[in-house]
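Collaborator request, handled under Task 6.
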Amino acid sequence: MKKLVLLALALGFAMVAHAQYPFVSITQINQPIDLANCNDTSMVYGDTVKTVGVVVTDGGLSEVASGSVIGGLRPFIFLVDTANGGAPGPYKGLEMMAIYENAQGAFQANSLATQLFAGDIIEVTGYISAFENSNQLTTLDANSIVIVGSASAPNSTVVPVSDLNDQNRVNNVQDGNQWEGSFVELQNVTVTNVIPFGNGRVSFDVADGSGNVLNVSDRFLAQKTSAHQVVNPNSPAGANGTGSFVAPVPGTFYNSLKGVIRQSGNGCTGGGGRGFEINPFDDSHYNVGFAPPFISEVDRDPVVPNANQDVDIVATITDLDGSVDSVAIGWSADTSLSTLAFPVFNMPLALGSVDEYEFSIPKQANGTIVRYYIYAEDNEGNVSYYPNKPFSQPEPNYEFYTVRNNGLTIADVQFSLAGNGESPYLGKTVTVKGVVTASTKPHDLGYVYIQDTASGPYTGISLVGNPNLGNLFRNEWIEVSGDVQENFGFTQIAVSNVTRLNTYNTIQPLSIDPSDSAAYANGEWEKYESMLVKFENPNGGKIYITNPDVNFGDYMVGTDPNFGINKSARVLAGRQSSSAASSLWVQLVTDSVYETTDGAMFVGPIETSDTMNMDAVVGVLSYGFSNYRLLPRANDDFIGLNVELDSAARANPFSVEEVVSVARVEVYPNPASEWFKVTSAGHTNMSADIYDLNGRVILSSNSSNGEELEVNVSGLTNGIYLMRILDRDGNVLSTQKVIVRK
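Structure tokens returned to the collaborator:
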């Protein structure tokens, strides 16, 4: 009785705040407009409302990184309607996105959100929207969340997979929509497919006894692997913690799986998503019944063999609920052979080991592609494969390597026989050579790409993770070593060593028809990833901006001004964040807001228009969020544009000598009206040069007190400038963009 009285009082107080907005229950928010005709849009979509709910997921468990939110975290909290004491039921669950736009126009996480705990009763004021067909309540401002009481942590409710998705993972909107946002339990499901993707993330599919399939996704810490660095300041893993989830093996049987339901629209609602999906938020939500052998720590030595070397394959194989009965390896140097027809050999235990198995593949001729897979069976007849094989797929998947007497090429790293496009050297350390096609220098992309001089596909790649990359200029011939990574389907090398070979070359862009929709749809653009390409009309005419804004900074170009999105290609500029890696030296952008959002532009923005046309546009072809897009490096990558752009004054290795340091340099305040102060720990007698955007030095200043440099900019007009800070020996410590604003 006491709890009910407190709840009633809490609800009364909740009605006072944000009184100008109507109170709408969570159940009312979730009512669809016309579910019978596949319109699952909320009846209050677009409205600003206030509601009350019981917190289901602790705020510290949310782990969705976002480069567009201050602090890098976009908190998501799930709520349940307070009716019946917060008991689960149809249309009673809701996802809250706890961010708001602050006075400066930047997105900021609500500070209270990550401090919430399951059972907190909160009043929320926000607006109703949807993401991928899943209803969301987005907080209105910093004061939108108010804790008004407490209750027991909400429980889950059992829901059959068939109420959510069918055998093709297509959503069952009529039965499943009522469970969107709710805490549910699935029972008696089997892992059918494990899906690793960018930055060490993983999801997996499960199926019930009738074959209905649901994806198990990773919105919370519970399903983050050790590769994930936490972004939530209140994470139970600690500020510098990581995830600890270990992905299951196809064939693993769960007695039960719990989590909150989200929708990734497909089927009759439209979209190409995953249907309904479940997101566990606690380790206890994974109740394993039995599991096949677990194959891990697979290693190949050497990674890149020559024609005189055998290749040793080693793997650790264990069984969590029994014993490993047999292990085998299938391999072949015949690329025309189905994996079902591979010769299979026993893979014995290594001498003196209880769980390490090994096999040597004999040496092969230079240029040979060798494919292989590993098979393990336990004492109960449960089987597993490496690489993972979907449960219903008869043919084993495989890894492969290429025999090279003279080392790998970029094409070897990029070319994949796998259907997912992943590099065969993923996670391996490689060494390749290439010509720099994009750099971090002024009037360039801001990211480093190299390309092989050999003409042909698969010859470009992205380089990341080493400060010495900042020394490089376009057209330099270099050699790099590093680990191959896949960043959400985009292949890159995390560089450990860079060698400048003191040779220079020019890569000519490969011509692509931006309206070749068949090539795009068939995945033929995969082979041009990270290459320097040119969008142009194959018939010699103009190309046009066919859609000046298709969201998130992308615009479309095509060979006919009337072509729609399906016969046009994407171009991106003006954004640098965790989700966008384009140039800040390109004026042509979809919205002038990008002048100071997602990185501050070095050139004045010109908004795209469907009246614009050009002869061609050059750039690096990138991939992300299921789309290919061209990344122009600077204004001079636009050829024959019918709008005048500023000229690009790019530095080259013959005119500028730079030394890049990892020193921490602070410039403040920025923007400034009179003075910039510059400090750098461990550095004294610094100096600074200020450049205009044409690359001209317009001001120089030296340190007066040894440790702090003051730069007087009172004589400069309002605008954007570059400040280059040097140490006492003339080495460049940092080059930063500064803004003078009076």
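The cover message to the collaborator said: "Residues 665-740 form a domain with the Immunoglobulin-like fold (CATH 2.60.40.10). The two ends are 62 Å apart (CA to CA). Please let us know whether this matches your experimental observations."
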